[in-house]
Fold these 3 entries.
Entry 1:
Amino acid sequence: MEGIFFRGTTVTLLGLSCLACVRTRLAGAPRELTHERLTAATVALDGEVHRLATCWSGDREYFLGVDLADENQGTFLRLAIDPMDGPRLRLTRGSGASAERLHFDASACRELRAEIEPTGWRVNHVRDFKGELKADCTHANGTHMVAHVAFSHCH
């Protein structure tokens, strides 16, 4: 009898643990996409548009900001807020040793505006953030990047 009670309790506890789960998503990236919503969660590199679909809080790696990734997890955009210099971006394309990493700060951008604020929620001691990013930047190598992102529940 104790074994049945224990198994039932375990299953119940596992089921209850998922009640607190929140699916992380970018604002503007619902199931049905319209052109208007798509522009709120994209990064364009030399005209090639990547739809951003997921985000993670910078708290996971001890920085104020977020990490954003496209649907295929092949393009990553890190938005970090430097307390002295303001927003900075790191764009990573590809993976492993062949990954290309480009860094952008205000000096490389015609427009670089970012807002990040905690929502008041915490998930496993990681703060949840909402905010937005608008950037129009050109790297020293000539790569042009335009980003329009609004995010919520990024943890």
Entry 2:
Amino acid sequence: MLFATWLMIGLFLDGYAHTNLIDELESFFTPWHAVFYSGFLATSAWVAWIIYKNVIAGHPLREAIPRGYRPTVLGLMIFALGGVGDGIWHTLFGVEAGIDALLSPTHFMLFTGGVLGLSTAIRTARLRNMGETVAAGDRLPLLISLLLATAAMAFFLAYVWIPGQPSILEVPYDSVSGEGQGAVGYYISGLLVSTTVLLAPLIIVLRWWKAPAGSVVAFWVPINTAIALSFDLHIGVALVFGLVGGVVGEVVGAVLSPGPSNRRASLVTLAAIPVAAWSAFVITYGIVGTIAWPPEIWAGSIILSGLAAAGLGWISLPDPERGPV
């Protein structure tokens, strides 16, 4: 997970460079790619060393790959192919500057392989912790793994990451002429995407365990801050959004104790987090900026975020009365 963090730092540095330093990016060989791909090499070397130690201990190769690590090995292979393809792609078609960088086929190969590797500790934690409590030694790797995998998803959806784009609330809206309806639709779509991505790691935790203290803050604050910095978005509002969502999640979680055996508490917690975060988002920009939309839109979108979160939990979390999902 430490080596994977190195890789992800390189990814966000590269995102910053594509957004702010595009005139200086003339080839595939950049300092940002050096950090990114050296993180991949370090991660690969570590996994190879683990497998090698098991082989020299007398285990057949198939058994030398630890439980939970087979998707990791597959992911590293996909990532390596994507890296080679990315170098060829940049050489033939140049360096992307905007949304096209997040939709590049070779970048999706890197994303797919990366997430398989980043999620390693999630799989191993599940194999080692079948009860509702995560062992102390597994908590930090689990949280880092969830954070990195979620950050990768957020990175590739940065073009609809509304927590860092509050100025969209200033777009004029007229219900009669239809002016501004496209902006409203983009806002609602981005709100639902951002909410889903940020709640995904918590839903994964609550399916199997009681969430360790700090889980929500660990996701909501760093991810929103990193996305805002990397893509030159509104850092102040994004930080408030993440802090409020994270703190409310921790407080509600401490009071209600959500988990696999307490489904109602889990649903309430999931709904409360985005309602609080999006309320803070609107209030903060109402103070520092201007909101051109009627209350039906911004207030309704806050309620919608809570309903969406509860719906995600409803279809994803186990029901103790009916058995496991």
Entry 3:
Amino acid sequence: MASWAPQHLANTVWSFATLGLADAPILTSIASASRRTIGEFGPQGLANTVWAYAKLAVLDAPLLDAISAAAIAIIS
């Protein structure tokens, strides 16, 4: 997943959340890959990613911090 584009990461985690599948190893990998490229995510990708983790009740504080920082940068 390290080479996936931000949209692929966001779409994949969104799909897992839509299906209600909280596969910890996959979600951890997606979070790690997302943090490395979070500056390349658009607003929709950020929203889909944070929604997916919330829907699955998976707390990844470093990912949430990165999404928050990226969202603030977009808003500013």
